[in-house]
Amino acid sequence: MKTSVLAIVLGCSLLAGAQDATQTQPAAPAGGGQQQAAPEIKDPAEYNAYVAAVQQQDANAKVSALEAFLTQYPNSVMKTTALELLMGTYQQSGNQAKVVDAAKRVIAADPNNVRALALLTYLARQSVAAGQNPQQSLADLSNYCAKGQAAVKSGQKPAGISDADYDKLKKQVSIIFDGGCGFAALQNKDYANAQSNLKLAVDAEPNDLQNVYPLAMSYLTATPPDSLSGLFYIARAAAVAPAGQSQTQIQAYGQKVFKNYHGSEEGWTDLLAAAKASPTPPPDLATKITKYVPPTPAQQAHDIVNGKTPDQIKQLSFGEWELVLAAGAPEDQDKVWSVIKNVPLQMEGNVLEVTGPTEIHIAASQDDIEQKRVDITLTMAGTIPPKLMPKVNDVFDFEGTPVSYTPTPFMMMMENGKLLKKAGAPAAAPTKKAPVRRRTARKPAQ
């Protein structure tokens, strides 16, 4: 919510108190049976004390006079108005502790007083945002904003205020109450209530960053997220944010979320322009921002071998062979297997297990190396002397002939294994393949 809205609300209370000072003097019963709209002080001494307090120009003097009036006349018909004036005067002087105390005294006297509830809601939200006594502040925020919403719906119009002015006041405080309840719900991960309350506040004041940004987050962080609504409102937040670091950070975050959802940044500048031009999402937003759906492993496997000659397939990495053989359609698997089956291959791998003098378990794709997951069982052509036997975690060059494989979990069986030079030494054959990461679904940058 904007500080200016709160200032208007408090300013109205000060103005109302000043106006009431001219309407509370003792008077004879109105002629013609008309009823006095504003409360009326009948005791001249009480009236003089009230007017004297209200007309003080110095804030400290006004506070003292109002406190004295409330002490001397605790049951005055002007008690609520005097407390509102006291609350606003403390706010003007910057004494927040006294502001809170005065506001609580107002709602003790008038539980549906929307000005006091708005002030308490505003201050509690500021405390939550600043991390000041967060649990109690959040509980206070939830309590005051809910009471404020109820008061707006069912509270009686105060005496001495016109219907038009009261309607205007309700609109102003509703932004504070709806935004506060939405912000509290967001902190509690109650995304549905966060969205509904913050949307009311943003619809009432579309340029208020303090509600637009939380509304965007209530959509984007929900489970599951409402990504389209969230993307529009994060773009809207960037549009209404003042130029500077805050705007830059919001825009950078929105751009990242957009890319993750859409798969590219294409269309982001158009969304920024649309959010700047209108406070509500365009009806065709879903057709303009489509969700990126990554190809399935089978589709990726097909793309790897599609249109390639046998010689080109032979030059693929072991990780690409593995993806095709593990996830590809039968015809794509055949394209790879027909090229490498029973063909001696030379490559590099990590030793994960040595199960005997003639068998070694190896990880050859980068994914499996990182996961320490075996993808090749190499049976040696003969017994390896102990002094030449690779150790676990060694990286070494070897030769083996593929004879069979299982797709899930993937395992290639190689025979006629031979130890070549250690990794880093000149390759024994020009066709040695270094392990590469298994090709996975394209994923936008985080």
3D structure, described in words:
With 446 residues, the protein is of the alpha+beta class. 56% of the residues lie in helices and 10% in strands. It has helices at 3-21, 44-54, 59-72, 79-93, 96-109, 114-130, 134-154, 163-187, 191-204, 209-220, 227-240, 245-262, 268-277, 285-288, 297-305, 310-314, 318-327, 330-340, 366-371, and strands at 345-356, 359-363, 376-380, 395-406, 411-422. Strands 1-2-3-5-4 form a five-stranded mixed beta barrel. The protein is elongated, with a radius of gyration of 37 Å. The relative contact order is 0.06.
Characteristics of this structure?
5 strands, disordered C terminus, 446 residues, alpha+beta, 19 helices, five-stranded mixed beta barrel
List the helices and strands and how they pair.
Blueprint (H helix, E strand, L loop, with lengths): L2 H19 L22 H11 L4 H14 L6 H15 L2 H14 L4 H17 L3 H21 L8 H25 L3 H14 L4 H12 L6 H14 L4 H18 L5 H10 L7 H4 L8 H9 L4 H5 L3 H10 L2 H11 L4 E12 L2 E5 L2 H6 L4 E5 L14 E12 L4 E12 L24
Parallel strand pairs: 3-5
Antiparallel strand pairs: 1-2, 1-4, 2-3, 4-5
Helix pairs in contact: 1-4, 1-6, 1-8, 2-3, 3-4, 4-5, 5-6, 6-7, 6-8, 7-8, 8-9, 8-10, 9-10, 10-11, 11-12, 11-13, 15-17, 17-18
Summarize the structure.
The protein has 446 residues and is an alpha+beta fold. It contains 19 helices and five strands. The protein is elongated and about 115 Å long.
